[in-house]
From TrEMBL:
It is an enzyme of class 2 (transferase). It comes from Bacillus pumilus (strain SAFR-032). The gene is nadK. Keywords: ATP-binding, Cytoplasm, Kinase, NAD, NADP, Nucleotide-binding, Transferase. It is found in: Cytoplasm. This is NAD kinase. The lineage of its organism: Bacteria, Bacillati, Bacillota, Bacilli, Bacillales. Transmembrane segments: none annotated.
Length: 266
């Protein structure tokens, strides 16, 4: 099996990365940073997000597993003291693959039908660079509302615990193939109206955001920030591709939610 190890870049993560690499090479596994079957990330959820984007053109061939060197992560759920156990599991046991849905974003421009496609593991956010974002929100080809406010966030189920949660969105189990649309500070008064609640769209419903004012947009795809000019529409839907995680032991999603946000209790 071909493997690669990505580190957050701080000294504790780099030390662990070297240790994991040495152990796996000792087990006769092949280090291949270009075409790995398995990517082990060492750092946090952010480190796994970076690795996802690095290998996003080969999601069908690459699986991910994350070790966290800070707090418990949603993607990075192994701790440094379990490294030996993890390495043994990688080298000796066939792993189980768990697939989570991701988000496809297509940005279309006014000039000559140009378009760019992106994949997000957590979310896409859309904000105006100058003042209020004014945009028509279409769902399944029908105008749903005209949004006025700070911005919109379209997230995946596994990303629902990230930015989406801070916006009051629901936490969605990643076995549900859906995307969630959450508002950032919408203007609501007698003139302007939005639904005000997060919406959860199934995988056959596409959401298209069409800017109404002629301004530049800041679009984020996970940790990447892009500035878009002359945008005609931003289309979001559940992607055909999935992100694949290598599972060596059960760690239920709701247990991770509980450990991350509630703690052990009394
Ligand atoms: P960052 O600002 O350095 O880290 C953002 C935080 O979000 C980190 O604590 C990270 O965990 C955590 N995180 C990432 N994915 C998560 C997930 N699926 N569930 C729960 N927590 C998650 O930025 P970054 O490391 O480049 O990550 C980019 C992400 O930051 C974006 O995708 C967005 O979701 C998130 N973000 C959140 C807010 C907010 O909550 N108000 C605002 C902006 C961006 P680790 O420490 O384990 O890496």
């Amino acid at each position: 099996m071909k493997f690669a190890v990505s580190s957050k870049g701080n000294s504790i993560s780099d030390t662990l990365k070297n240790k994991i690499q040495t152990y796996l090479l000792d087990f006769g596994m092949e280090l291949n940073e270009e075409e790995p079957d398995l990517v082990i990330t060492v750092g946090g959820d952010g480190t796994l997000l970076y690795a996802f984007h690095r290998y996003s053109d080969r999601l069908n061939e690459t699986a991910f597993v994350g070790v966290h060197t800070g707090h418990l992560g949603f993607y990075a759920d192994w701790v440094p003291s379990e490294i030996e156990k993890l390495v043994l599991a990688i080298a000796k046991t066939p792993y189980h693959i768990v697939e989570y849905p991701i988000l496809e974003v297509i940005v279309r421009y006014n000039d000559g039908g140009r378009e760019e496609k992106y994949l997000a593991m957590n979310e896409c956010t859309i904000k105006s660079m100058e003042g209020t974002l004014v945009a028509d929100v279409e769902i399944r080809g029908q105008l749903f509302e005209t949004f006025r406010g700070d911005g919109l966030c379209l997230s995946t189920p596994s990303g629902s615990t990230a930015y989406n949660k801070a916006l009051g969105g629901a936490i969605i189990h990643p076995s549900i193939r859906a995307i969630q649309l959450a508002e950032m500070a919408s203007i609501n008064n007698r003139v302007f109206r939005t639904v005000g609640s997060p919406l959860i769209l199934p995988d056959h419903h596409t959401c298209v955001i069409k800017p109404r004012n002629d301004v530049d947009f800041q679009v984020t795809i996970d940790h990447l920030t892009l500035l878009h000019k002359d945008v005609k529409s931003i289309q979001c839907r559940v992607a055909d591709e999935n992100v694949r995680f290598a599972r060596f032991r059960p760690f239920p999603f709701w247990k991770r939610v509980q450990d991350s946000f509630i703690g052990k209790g009394e």
